[in-house]
Amino acid sequence: MKLIVNGEQVECSAPTLSTLLEQLDYEGEWLATAINGDLVHAEDRQDCALNDGDRIEILSPMQGG
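That's the Sulfur carrier protein ThiS sequence above. Prediction below.
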C-alpha cells in the first residue's frame, strides 16, 4: 500500500500504525503521531489500521535552542 509519511510517499505492507513505526525504525513513547490530521495516542497505535493513501505525520522532540 502507498502512504504519505511526513510528506514523502512510502510503499509498505504495515497493517497498523505501530507496525509502520517499527518498520521505519521509530522508537519511543514520546513520539507524536497523526493519521489524516487526527492525533493517534501511543496506546492506540497498535489498533490503528492503515489504509492506502493515508497521510501519516510522525513528530519527535528536538533539542536545541
